[in-house]
Every structure is written in C-alpha cells, then in structure tokens.
Design goal:
The complex is a heterodimer of chains A (115) and B (472).
Chain A (H helix, E strand, L loop, with lengths): L1 H13 L11 E7 L4 H17 L4 E7 L4 H6 L7 E5 L4 E5 L5 H7 L8
Parallel strand pairs in A: 1-2
Antiparallel strand pairs in A: 1-3, 3-4
Chain B lengths: L12 E2 L6 H4 L4 E2 L3 E6 L5 H14 L4 E5 L4 H10 L4 H6 L3 E5 L7 E2 L6 H14 L3 E5 L1 H5 L5 H17 L3 E7 L10 H6 L2 E10 L2 E11 L8 E7 L2 E4 L15 E2 L4 H6 L4 E2 L3 E6 L5 H14 L4 E5 L4 H10 L5 H5 L3 E5 L7 H15 L3 E5 L10 H18 L2 E7 L5 H8 L7 E10 L2 E11 L9 E6 L2 E3 L4
Parallel strand pairs in B: 3-8, 3-9, 4-5, 4-7, 7-8, 15-19, 15-20, 16-17, 16-18, 18-19
Antiparallel strand pairs in B: 1-2, 9-10, 10-11, 11-12, 13-14, 20-21, 21-22, 22-23
The chains are: A alpha+beta (115), B alpha/beta (472).
Chain lengths: 115, 472
C-alpha cells in the first residue's frame, strides 16, 4: 500500500503534461475515528464516489486515528474524517463526511467527468 | 443516625510560575479545570500560557502545548531566547509541542469532529503522564466551523474530555475589545477562570495589562495589573494598594541639614513620603543628595532613581556643591539607577524600581524627578508609577523622597495638581528669587504631618561646602 502511494506521489511530482485533470490514478488516505457516524458516512461516500467516477483507477487507505495516533500527528490530522487525496498533479485535503458530492468532485477536479 | 455533613471541597490550585500572577490569583490556576486567556494580537497571552506550561513541566507536571497557529519550531525558538531550556524538557518527555496548524487550503465537505485531535492528545497524555495542557489560539480551530452551535458543541466536548482526565488546561483566544461581545463568549462561561490581557499604546509607549475577569470558587485581585515581558519571561506587578498595610512612621532622622532638622521638629520621619518641590536650579537635587550622603554615612542604603541625569554627571555636579557621593556609590550604600523616562513603558520602570527595592533593600528611595515621569506615557501613567513606588516603600518602611520640578513661581498651587499629596507626609518648597540682580534661594516647610513646623520661607545658600541654611 505504502509503496503504491509513494509511486503515485512521484508520478504527480513529475507533472507529466499528458496527465490532465480528472485522469490518472487517485490515491486516497482517509483518516477516521473508529465507527463514529461521520467516519462511517465518509467511508461510504468515498467508496460510492470511487465506484462511480474512478472505477479501476483509485486506491484507498483507511487510517483509524483511535488506533494510530502517530499517523494523525505525522499528517496533522486534527479533525475526523479527513481525506488526503493524492491525485495525479497535487495533494488535496478534504475535511468532513464528504456528504456534499458536488463540492468533493470540484475539489478533486472530477466535476467535468461523466459517471 | 447523623446526617452526612457535606464536606466543603477546597479548590486545589497550581502555580503558574509567572512572577506576580500567582499572587493575583491567590495561589495559581484552578487544578484540573479550564482557564481562558483572551487578548488581542501581540498582547502576550501565548507567552503567559507557555510560561505556565514550562513551569509545570519543570515542577513535575508534564505539559502538552497544542499550537493551532504558530509553528512549533518558531515557538521553541522564542522561548529559548528567554533562556528556558525547552529542549531538555522535550527530550525527557516532560513537554510536548503539538503542531496543530490546519491546512489553510483544506476543503470542508460535510460534518466532522475533533476526534483526531483527541486521539492524538489521548496518546500523548498517556505517554507523558501529562497534568497540564495549553491550547494556543483555539479560535483558529473554531474558525473551521461555520456554525456557532457546532463551535459550542465541539468545545464543550473538549471541555468534558479535559475534566474527565483532570487536566489543568489553558486556552488562549484572540479577542478585540473594540468588537464588543466576543463571538467566543461561551468560552467565558465554560472556563472556571478567565483572564483578559491587553496591550495599549498611549503617547508612543506600550503598556500591557492583565485583569482576572472571573475565578469560580476563589478570590482574586480585582485590579488591572500591569505586566512586562522581561528578558526572562513575564512579570506581573501586583499591587496590594491598601493603606492598612503601610507601616507606621518610624523615628526621626537627620535630613542631612541641621538647619532643616530644626524646621521639621528634629528631622524627617523614617518610612514616610517626602516631597521636595521647586523650580529648576532651586537646589532640589542638592537637598536630596545631602540627605543621601548623611544616610550613607550612618551606614544606611539609598536607592536613587534618576530620570534627569547620569550617575557620573550627578556625582560631579554634587561635588561642586560640596556634597560628596563617590565613596557611598563605591561601597554600594548609594545605588543610582539612571534611565530615560521614555525609554520604556511605565510598567517596565515600575518593575525595575520594585526589583531594586527587593534586591538592594534600601532604607531610603529618592525619585528625581517626578515631573520627568510624565514622559513615561501619560500623566496617569506617571501618577500610577509614583503611587505604586510610594506604596511599595510605605509597606516596607522605606523613606521615599520625591523631587518635583515646578514650572512657574507659584509652586504652592502646583503641588496639589500632582495628586499624590494626600499620601505625602512632608512637603518642602524651594524657590529662587532675583532681588536687586542677586539670586536668593529660599526654603519653606509647607507640610509636615504630625509635627509643628515653621511656616515661612528661610533663606539658604549653596556653597562649595554644601547647603548653608542659617538658624531660624
């Protein structure tokens, strides 16, 4: 998982001119707090969004801050859920249960895509 | 069966380690409770919180510092410059800085909570065995929420979490008194102790002040207290301005001038306030130095706070008037502290004066001149400085001699304008007249509490062997 994430980042760092917004592989790291409602919702919303818009080109890593506080310190995750999305060209941070799909798509620059 | 008598629970307090603040708080912050420190940007609230954290960490109460706004590295650097060894505290797991700055570019979509923060804190509290926790710039965290209800809800959650763990917490929050009631006023209700800090600039001089707004279950000093950020941290200047604590005047001692002693029934009383007022060149400094010289010869110590000239120029001027000070300075019986009134704010001057009183333990203090003190800021600032120095002297049984430069000939009416005459015991007026192209100096004892005194002007001369005041 870890190496895959790093690969995605290296790719992003190269800023390939061929990679356009909304294409390429998306790596997501979702920080949750156990099974509290917002975390559960975020997990569901992210899975839904990936299967609709990013079929076959995404990876999801779930980090439970209640079990892994060190990761929360490292990534300065103060609020849950926090989604760190490493998309082909940049890293985007989203806070919240991802209930506003339009906003999430816009932040990930997927709003031009058709499901 | 006897009914159980409800036991009165004593509030436990933990010292802040901030000089003067524990006195104002009657012992310190409420242990296991939340304290709110609010104030504008640059008011010094973060430093107060940090000093308290470090004091705890050193005194066996490990502390976590959550930084919502500043980089941990920058804060570390700031406190290192104050000479606090944070690194060894961090190494020994007595102190932990949590960099909790939020990503400003983060996009908010839907509801969230600070569970991540709590998970981090939970782990660190256990790792350190933390007893204290500081949240610096908690308003930055609250800004994330667009709803006042959510802000309140999250903060109550955090408050509960802190109470459950018995942590002594300090939250700092930015506030601007000009804005009216703060958006975060709910924090005032939540906290057990609320302290407001502010910084004012009047006539180009910065003054910092601190006021305890509330303290559940405890008494506290209700004044506004000036404080300074010294080279080793915050110093609050508490005043216990109660005349009841003033010591009763002591025995009489020589004023340094036999002729003047006769006019005030045998000399000045120890531990009283004496005002010497007169126009420029009337001989105020000479009269005060003659007293200092006599006191030092008796083996007593004198602190001379000089706002007019350097110690060197004072010594050489006095030598030509026959008052010899060099040996007294050499033996440190006489300590002259010269400074420009406008160099720092009034509280810094006050801090220096009070520190000198405690360190040197003088029997007498001379302030030359109170008219220059207005250049510390405003008339009010000068008044406060003089009141507090006099108050501190009277509590310690120290004689306090104030010199005041009158601007006109009508020195008598100017005295009442100073506003401190009510706590001055003796007033001596000096004046210089030109009669037939000759300068004539005169002295009058205008007030001498508790003793009979002569009520007319007496001529005197300043010669190369001192002041010559003929017998009345």
């Amino acid at each position: 998982m870890r190496t895959q994430m790093l690969k995605a980042r290296t790719h992003a760092g190269r800023k390939s001119p061929a990679a356009t917004a909304g294409s390429g592989t998306y790596a997501f790291r979702l920080f949750v707090a156990g099974n509290e409602s917002n975390s559960t919702e975020a997990r569901q919303n992210l899975a839904q969004l990936c299967s609709t818009y990013l079929k076959g080109r995404h990876r999801i890593e779930i980090v439970d801050v209640l079990k892994n506080a060190a990761a929360a310190i490292k990534h300065r995750v103060l609020v849950t859920p926090t989604l760190i999305a490493i998309e082909p060209q940049r890293v985007v941070t989203l806070l919240g249960n991802l209930s506003d799909t339009r906003q999430v798509l816009a932040a990930l620059r997927l709003n031009g895509n058709r499901p | 069966m006897r009914a159980a008598v409800p036991r009165r629970r004593e509030l436990t307090k933990v010292p802040t380690g901030v000089t003067g603040l524990d006195e104002v708080l009657r012992g310190g912050l409420p242990a296991g409770r939340m304290t709110l420190l609010s104030g504008g940007a640059g008011s010094g609230k973060s430093l107060i919180a940090l000093q308290c954290a470090l004091h705890g960490a050193k005194a066996g109460e490990p502390c976590i510092v959550v930084l919502f706004e500043e980089r941990a590295a920058a804060v570390r650097q700031n406190v290192l410059s104050l000479g606090w060894d944070v690194r060894s505290l961090e190494r020994n797991k007595k102190l932990f800085f949590l960099d909790a700055r939020l990503n400003p570019e983060a996009v908010v979509s839907g509801d969230f909570s600070i569970k991540g923060l709590l998970a981090i804190l939970e782990q660190q509290v256990k790792a350190l065995g933390a007893r204290r926790i500081v949240f610096d710039a908690v308003d930055t965290l609250l800004h994330l929420y667009n709803s006042a209800t959510r802000e309140r809800h999250e903060l109550s959650g955090l408050h509960e979490w802190l109470l459950d763990r018995g942590l002594t917490a300090i939250m700092t929050v930015k506030s601007d008194p000009q804005d009216g009631p703060s958006r975060y006023s709910f924090l005032d209700f939540m906290a057990d102790c609320v302290i407001h800090v502010d910084q004012r600039v009047t006539v180009q001089v910065t003054t910092r002040r601190l006021r305890v707004v509330k303290y559940r279950g405890s008494g506290y000093g209700r004044n506004e207290y000036p404080f300074i950020i010294g080279d080793d941290g915050i110093h609050v200047i508490p005043i216990t301005s109660s005349v009841l604590q003033h010591r009763t005047p002591g025995a009489r001692m020589s004023s340094g001038l036999a002729g003047l002693d006769r006019l005030v029934a045998g000399g000045y009383k120890r531990g009283t306030g004496i005002l010497i007022v007169g126009t420029t060149g009337a001989g105020k400094t000479t009269l005060a130095c003659a007293f200092a010289q006599a006191a030092c010869r008796r083996g007593e110590r004198v602190l001379y706070l000089n706002f007019e000239e350097s110690p060197e120029s004072m010594v050489s001027n006095m030598r030509s008037a026959g008052v010899l000070l060099r040996s007294a300075i050499k033996s440190r019986r006489l300590v002259v502290q010269s400074s420009m009134p406008e160099a720092t704010g009034v509280e810094e001057h006050l801090f220096r004066a009070l520190r000198a009183l405690d360190e040197l333990r003088p029997q007498h203090v001379i302030v030359d001149a109170i008219s220059a003190c207005e250049r510390m800021g405003t008339t009010h600032a000068a008044f406060e400085y003089l009141m507090r120095v006099l108050d501190a002297c009277k509590q310690r049984g120290i004689t306090c001699i104030y010199l005041n430069q009158a601007t006109g000939m009508d020195v008598v009416s100017e005295i009442s304008g100073i506003g401190i005459s009510s706590i001055i015991d003796t007033v001596i007026v000096l004046r210089q007249l030109s009669i037939d192209r000759e300068t004539r100096r005169e002295l009058m004892v205008m007030k001498s509490r508790g003793s009979r005194h002569s009520e007319r002007f007496h001529e005197f001369r300043i010669t190369s062997h001192g002041i010559d005041l003929p017998k009345a």
